[in-house]
Write a structure and sequence with these properties.
alpha+beta, Phosphorylase Kinase, domain 1, Transferase(Phosphotransferase), domain 1, five-stranded antiparallel sheet, three-stranded antiparallel sheet, elongated
C-alpha cells in the first residue's frame, strides 16, 4: 500500500499494486454508459468493499489507466467523514488495476428524494454535510466537477452524507489529464467553455442546482435564495466558497429565532401601550368607563405572559419544523383578535369612534407583526 505522505503532489509512482489477499464474491453492480469504468461489490475478511476498474474495452488503453490512477491518487489523499474513503490501489485477476474503496450502505440523494423520505431538517443536514465536504476538498485545491444527486450517498445508519466519484476531479498539477465531462444539468456555464479556468465556484454552481432539486420537494424560501446566488452565471456573483454557503444557512436560521423572540416582545409592548392609551383619556369618561369595566387588559396580559413563558418551547419546535412558527404566529394573532372582539364587543358598539379606532389599530399592529414573520419564514 502506498504511503499517503508520498501523495502530496503528482501521481503515485508506477509501483506494483499490492496483492495482500484476494477478494471474494466479486460481482459487478454498475457500469457507466458514458464513461470508462465499472463498479464491483466484493468481500475481504468478511467486510464489504467496492472495486472500481476499467471496462474491458478500455483496459489496455494507457490514457484510461492514467485516469483511473489519477482518481485513486486524488481519493487516497482525502480523509473526511462526508467523503467515501479510498483504501488501496490493487491488481485483481480478471479485473486488472482497481481502486479499492469503502462500501457505503445507503442510497443516492436522488433515490432518497424519489422515495419521498426528504424532510426539511434532513435537507439542511444534507446540505451542511455536502458543504463541509466541499470546503475540505477545496482547501486541497481540488474541484470535484461532477456534483449531482447520484454522487451523494445518504447512509441508512444515521442519514449521513457521503460524497463519491472523484473521476472528473481536477487540480492544477494534472494538466495532461483534463477532460471536459459531467452531467449537463449540473455543469456550471464555464465548464462548457474550452480552456476555461475552473475553481471552487464551479462546484458552488452545481451545489446550487442540487439545492434547487431539493426545493422542488421541500418548499423553503431561504434555500431558494441560496440556490439563486449559487447558480449565478457570473462566478463572481456566486458564493465564493462552501463556507460562505454554510454561514448563509446558519446565520439565517439564527436570525429567525431572534425575530420570533423580538416579535413576541414587541407584541406585548404594543398591547400594553395601546391599553394604557385607552385608560389615560381623562376627558373621555365613556372610554374610561369601558376600560375599567373590561377585562381586556388582564386577559391580554395573561395571554401574552403565557406566550412568553412558553417561548423556549416554541423556539425549539420551530427549529425542528419552521412551519410550526407560522402556525403559532397565526394562532396567536387569531387568539388576540378574538379577545378584543369578545371583551369589547358591546363596548365598541356603544362608545366613541376614537375607542373603535384604537382597537382597530391594535388589531392592525398585531397583523403587521405576524405578516412580517410569515413572509420571512415562507
Amino acid at each position: 500500500m502506498p504511503n499517503k505522505d508520498s501523495l502530496s503532489s503528482g501521481f503515485v509512482g508506477e509501483d506494483i499494486p499490492s496483492q495482500e489477499s484476494m477478494f471474494s464474491n466479486i460481482s459487478e453492480f454498475y457500469r457507466s454508459e458514458s464513461g470508462y469504468s465499472c463498479l464491483h461489490l466484493c468481500r475481504r475478511y468478511g467486510k464489504l468493499h467496492i472495486l472500481k476498474s476499467l471496462q474491458p474495452l478500455f483496459k489496455q488503453e494507457e490514457f484510461y489507466k492514467q485516469l483511473l490512477h489519477k482518481e485513486f491518487n486524488i481519493g487516497y489523499q482525502l480523509d473526511h467523514p462526508n467523503i467515501r474513503q479510498t483504501i488501496d490501489w490493487e491488481q485483481q485477476e480478471d479485473l486488472g488495476l482497481c481502486i479499492v474503496m469503502e462500501y457505503v450502505d445507503g442510497i443516492s440523494l436522488k433515490e432518497f428524494m424519489i422515495q419521498g423520505k426528504l424532510t426539511q431538517p434532513l435537507a439542511y443536514k444534507f446540505i451542511r454535510g455536502l458543504c463541509e465536504a466541499l470546503h475540505y476538498i477545496h482547501s486541497k485545491q481540488l474541484v470535484h466537477k461532477d456534483l449531482k444527486p447520484e454522487n451523494i450517498i445518504i447512509t441508512h445508519n444515521g442519514n449521513n452524507v457521503k460524497l463519491i466519484d472523484f473521476g472528473l476531479s481536477d487540480r492544477d498539477d494534472y494538466d495532461t489529464l483534463k477532460i471536459p465531462a459531467g452531467t449537463k444539468k449540473y455543469l456550471a456555464p464555464e465548464q462548457l467553455l474550452s480552456h476555461a479556468s475552473l475553481d471552487c465556484r464551479t462546484d458552488i454552481y452545481s451545489l446550487g442546482v442540487i439545492i434547487q432539486d431539493i426545493t422542488s420537494v421541500i418548499k423553503d424560501r431561504r434555500l431558494v435564495r441560496i440556490a439563486q446566488k449559487c447558480t449565478q452565471k457570473n462566478p463572481d456573483k456566486r458564493f465564493h466558497s462552501a463556507q460562505e454557503v454554510l454561514e448563509a444557512l446558519n446565520v439565517r436560521r439564527h436570525s429567525k429565532s431572534i425575530l420570533y423572540i423580538s416579535a413576541v416582545a414587541l407584541l406585548s409592548f404594543l398591547t400594553t401601550f395601546y391599553l394604557k392609551n385607552l385608560s389615560s383619556q381623562p376627558d373621555k369618561s365613556s372610554i374610561n368607563r369601558v376600560y375599567s369595566n373590561s377585562v381586556i387588559a388582564p386577559t391580554c396580559q395573561k395571554f401574552l405572559l403565557q406566550k412568553k413563558n412558553n417561548l423556549n418551547r416554541h423556539v425549539i419546535a420551530y427549529k425542528k419544523n419552521e412551519r410550526s412558527l407560522v402556525q403559532d404566529s397565526t394562532n396567536t394573532q387569531k387568539a388576540l383578535k378574538q379577545i378584543i372582539k369578545t371583551e369589547f364587543a358591546d363596548a365598541t358598539q356603544q362608545e366613541s369612534r376614537l375607542f373603535k379606532h384604537q382597537v382597530n389599530e391594535l388589531e392592525s399592529e398585531i397583523g403587521q407583526i405576524f405578516e412580517a414573520i410569515r413572509k420571512e419564514v415562507q
